[in-house]
Amino acid sequence: MARISLIEEAEHPELAEMIGRIKAGRRGGLLNVYKLLLHSPALAQTWFDHNSAVRWKTKLSGRLREIVIIRVAHLNNVDYVLAQHVPGLALAEGLTLRECNALENWRATDLFDARERAALAYAEAMTLSTSVSDEVFAGVRRHFDERELVELSVLVGTYIMHNRVMKALAIDLEPETNRGR
Fold first, then answer.
1. In whole angstroms, what separates CA 24 from the centre of its chain?
2. Does 178 score more than 70 pLDDT?
């Protein structure tokens, strides 16, 4: 059960404009993460803007983005993110359910190409430690240009933050109808 109450749209008409922007950018839904963040409207807006840029305004493919997000969620054991991305968002970006499931132990499978494996190793290093070894960085640098390295790093960092906030506040899973928005 969530440690923080969720802001319900009908009970907060003063937030209608912001809620409208969030819903428009999230395919019409107001997810629990935003219902929680709306306790601090400025943070809800910043989270929404940042997340939108990380997910939609980079050179990284949707497939790679989902691979990284799902792996970081597995590493942090965050069911909320996994439920949001698997299967809905991941399948929409070209992953198969088999690939999604394999991300829990990606090293034991050949389902991911060299570029994806380098990104997975990098995401894992960033998530499990405060530094990335030169060896891991050299591996990812072979496959990504400098812009992509910045974007990949910010993507991983963003989802580490998301995972930590969601885990600390014990956010409730979305109802089935709101998953994958």
1. 19
2. no
